[in-house]
Sequence to fold (1160 residues):
Amino acid sequence: MSASPVEFCGIELEHPIINGSGTFDANAARRVFGDELIAAANFPFSAFVSKTITPAPRPGNPPPRLWEEAAGMINSIGLPNKGIEGFLEHDLPGLGELPVPLIVSVMGTSAEEFTTLIEGVAERPEVDGLELNISCPNVHSGLIVGEQPTETLALLNAVRPLTGKPLIVKLTPNVADPVAIARAAEAAGADAVSLINTVKARAIAPGSSEPWLGAGSGGLSGPAVRVIAVKQVADVAEAVAIPVVGMGGVERGSDARDLLAAGATLVAVGTASFRDPLAGARIRAELAELAMS
Amino acid sequence: MSASPVEFCGIELEHPIINGSGTFDANAARRVFGDELIAAANFPFSAFVSKTITPAPRPGNPPPRLWEEAAGMINSIGLPNKGIEGFLEHDLPGLGELPVPLIVSVMGTSAEEFTTLIEGVAERPEVDGLELNISCPNVHSGLIVGEQPTETLALLNAVRPLTGKPLIVKLTPNVADPVAIARAAEAAGADAVSLINTVKARAIAPGSSEPWLGAGSGGLSGPAVRVIAVKQVADVAEAVAIPVVGMGGVERGSDARDLLAAGATLVAVGTASFRDPLAGARIRAELAELAMS
Amino acid sequence: MSGADGRVQAPLGRRRLTVSSNEPSGGYRILSALDEAGPAPAAGQFYMLAAESGWGGNAERPYLPRAFSVAEAEVTDKGLRLDFLLEDVGPGTHALAALEAGEGLMVTGPLGRPFSAPREINLDAAGAILVGGGLGLAPLAILRKALGERGVPLRTLLGFRDEAHSGGMELFRCCEVGLASEDGHAGHRGYVTDLLAAMLDGDQAASGVVYSCGPPAMLEAVRTMCAERGVACELALETPMACGFGACFGCAVPLAEGGYMRLCVDGPVVGGNQIETAMPAGSGHRG
Amino acid sequence: MSGADGRVQAPLGRRRLTVSSNEPSGGYRILSALDEAGPAPAAGQFYMLAAESGWGGNAERPYLPRAFSVAEAEVTDKGLRLDFLLEDVGPGTHALAALEAGEGLMVTGPLGRPFSAPREINLDAAGAILVGGGLGLAPLAILRKALGERGVPLRTLLGFRDEAHSGGMELFRCCEVGLASEDGHAGHRGYVTDLLAAMLDGDQAASGVVYSCGPPAMLEAVRTMCAERGVACELALETPMACGFGACFGCAVPLAEGGYMRLCVDGPVVGGNQIETAMPAGSGHRG
Ligand SMILES: Cc1cc2nc3c(=O)[nH]c(=O)nc-3n(C[C@H](O)[C@H](O)[C@H](O)COP(=O)(O)OP(=O)(O)OC[C@H]3O[C@@H](n4cnc5c(N)ncnc54)[C@H](O)[C@@H]3O)c2cc1C
Ligand SMILES: Cc1cc2nc3c(=O)[nH]c(=O)nc-3n(C[C@H](O)[C@H](O)[C@H](O)COP(=O)(O)OP(=O)(O)OC[C@H]3O[C@@H](n4cnc5c(N)ncnc54)[C@H](O)[C@@H]3O)c2cc1C
Ligand SMILES: Cc1cc2nc3c(=O)[nH]c(=O)nc-3n(C[C@H](O)[C@H](O)[C@H](O)COP(=O)(O)O)c2cc1C
Ligand SMILES: Cc1cc2nc3c(=O)[nH]c(=O)nc-3n(C[C@H](O)[C@H](O)[C@H](O)COP(=O)(O)O)c2cc1C
Ligand code: FES
Ligand code: FES
Fold:
């Protein structure tokens, strides 16, 4: 429960604070903030998790894609991405210049698609690990695997042999028993699990009876889901021996400490970065201070 | 979507705002506020739902039972109650004096226990309907039925014949697919469903690595869960023909309107009453104002 | 309206008071507000308080209101003035401590069971000993006033940790009090319960009632001391509360006879014999 | 530092500015803050703003920061002063409108793509027409200043709904502007685009660039008008944003070529030919 260096799936990390997939685009942020961002002393995360990619390019969901709540937000982004080819050509070179290890998040709708993705990504030297997104509530296919232990087991059995690099399985919170999914991932050789993804939610357009979001519904993130995450992380960490990346509503050092106390090895910061691009660095500093007190 | 009188399972209600079970003790509140509370013009709800009772008395969970979040709270109350006999003798007379219809919430760990409860309660003239709590996340047995469509179907099939009074099935949000549970309840003759109950959550004690709550975990309620409730209410209301009681994080008239827009017939106010004992009345007034604008 | 146990009923619902002053007092603050609609509370009752604005924000607590014993209730020409003694220990008390005169204070109350005396004791003859520490001065201040007006023979013993925790003394301006401080900055160096023990064991041994409010360890010492000597005592307890009016069942305090009471409706004042300990239970309170 | 398209890079992270003034202007407010660490922004760029305290509370929004075009950036002896023009339309703008001098304003920026000119156009010779309405005056004010200092021939047309929506005029104090108002309280009774049409169709037909910011319907009229006449135009758009720096993909605006751009990094200034319409899409905007 400190902010010191930590080993995660054989990767040495400077500290336990990373980002949640899809909540920080290091290439875009570098355009905005300049090369200051990628100086080792400045980069807010000890490893970088890229936004989920799919085999083919996706435009993402129609707007509006955002809804704000008092302590969080709903997003229905819909996994816009350039597809694996676009990613490898346009995004990976920039991500390879980051001062920290790189974890690439991938999502497919079948074992074959995951295979395409893993084969395309894992061999690249810039890539230190992969996160398998089986939990995104915005894309129907995402839920099929992540809701069923048997599906998760089958997927991991199929793709585990493809690479020796760490495979992290990202879990959805929208199930009765996340432990069962985590156990299945572990049984089939996942190196780690990460949770929670966003919680299914909907907003009604003000002055109307219709859903606000272009896609109808989306996923809730931010402080509102924090204690839901602590619960699921604690349950999963108690049940599996592989490391757990805990996330959900982390805004302060004490939130990170709570997830570490619940059994997480790393903590990911998502929505908090939207309010404060260096939230990760601040949270890490606050965590270090808590660890000393 | 108005604040006008509404028919619910054959009961005429003055307006669509009721309370969530376990979040308002009308007898205790009458000791605090006096008979003013039960004047028809003052009572904040159009029907009163009593706190869940069980066949035998229960002391409830060890303290601490409460944890506060920025936009809500976790409770691990643990269904303290006097048992059915104590309820009928000590609580029901006072509840019978309320100026609104009475719905009694009951929870058993088996069809036999539910039978005891329903037989004991339903015949009483003070009682206008029953809510079957198959969702409380604080009591392990509560989840068994509410997580499985088949269990829900079996329970309802067993108890439906026991009474002609309305049976409302209260759903837990801690499942992948609340629609499946709602459909099972409807298929077996439930008159209505209500949702959401609290969302499983945990807090870590400040300055410690241990859970804060005496019972380890509890359920999140309040504004943090509002848009989770809107989503589940919308999905369920679209799938079933029986009326839906929507609840979860309702603090303002516009929150009630959103749940009505999502398909609810009634809206229940829970945690908001803790901050403001007359929150129900305020929300009803705000809803009326919105309906006119 | 007053209940059987002397409790004063609250106006229905929550109401907005206007803060009339908010002054430092030792390490604490005295927050005062004008309560035009409210009745005079009974000593030992409390109110649920929240700042009208600035309650939370930046996705931080507080969300729920906070419980505070009323320390004084004085009829002024502008209406009833309620005084609360508070210490800034977290986000709720911090927001209340920052309130300025003219700002809104949302209140529900008076709430809970006040101090009382067992039927078999004639307080006017037997007298009372008030034992307070730290923030526990609050309910004893209004109790002292009420008993004093009735002419009950009174002795007051107050204890402090150190100067930084010696606020609220002005609530006892009027009267003679016995003082103890752990650091010796005022009165007896040591615990206020040393003074109580001496009083109970000496020629002044009480046939009356001991009323106490303060930190759990102090209350527990008072409870044990009285129990051992067969002296009647009433303690004003604290526990986290969400609602204050019996709605949430969150304020459970274990009963000596087994089970729990809701401290907000069955307390906050309890008889020493109702509880097994005044120390809070549960892992949470280690922090 | 300046990017290829003239964008000025932001200092890394979020910083605290001190509000120097916050004054009403028509129905709007001009919020000014001193930015000691920040660079001078380019015209058309924006900042993400949040009040340091009082952002949310009572379990209400706002939670996220809000985007505002910079309206003026003036070097003073106390450092760079940033001016923002804002209208209180919801909880975020309400909290910003309530800020007082001396209070903290959390900012990230400057952000986004500024106004520019197509390579093939020599702006200094061909000149520019600025067409603004309502809050859209903000980015045009700083653009007018920048182009004016460069000596670009300028014509400015401003439109207002009515007096309650005529704030920000003092940002154009210096110069001659053509006015239109829907209620006729100032200048031409009607739309500002009537004036633009006359200008483009008359002897003053522009070989230069039209720069516009304002309500969607106005922007769409400008876009169509320019497209029909083959006149280059740049529009400063708005859409809800969570982050402002490309992190969330929430600010999607449909592209004419299909797909979406992230308005925070690929805008907010877009070429008229990049989009199919300036009207916001989606059910949400019916409200
Ligand atoms: C009947 C009664 C009378 C009282 N009278 C007075 C009085 O006269 N004067 C006075 O100053 N105080 C009084 N109190 C105590 C007062 O209510 C508390 O000090 C106050 O609630 C603290 O709130 P806070 O937000 O400042 O601190 P909190 O942060 O709420 O901290 C208070 C304690 O709660 C725990 N805690 C921390 N975080 C959380 C969380 N997220 N959720 C739940 N618990 C948490 C910790 O143990 C902490 O020490 C009284 C309490 C009761 C019940
Ligand atoms: C690049 C850019 C530049 C801008 N420049 C300026 C400027 O110079 N001056 C200025 O005044 N404004 C400017 N804006 C607009 C400004 O950011 C918005 O007015 C502001 O975000 C409104 O926030 P609010 O909380 O006050 O209102 P909100 O309540 O957020 O209302 C704004 C709109 O959002 C929708 N909405 C309502 N509730 C929600 C919810 N819960 N979640 C999501 N959407 C909701 C509604 O359609 C509503 O009309 C700019 C925006 C952008 C993107
Ligand atoms: C705007 C947004 C986009 C996201 N995109 C992805 C994604 O592409 N892949 C993924 O696995 N998770 C995605 N997430 C989920 C986050 O990684 C994280 O699991 C979740 O937001 C909870 O953490 P937080 O509360 O700190 O944001 C996204 C979340 C947000 C808010
Ligand atoms: C303190 C507390 C006690 C509760 N007790 C019960 C209960 O006994 N039976 C039940 O069905 N639901 C119970 N609930 C759930 C509420 O009825 C409601 O479903 C939930 O709190 C969501 O609504 P809210 O966000 O408005 O509080 C309880 C909730 C709280 C906060
Ligand atoms: S504080 Fe809610 S029941 Fe006592
Ligand atoms: S506002 Fe977040 S990507 Fe544009």
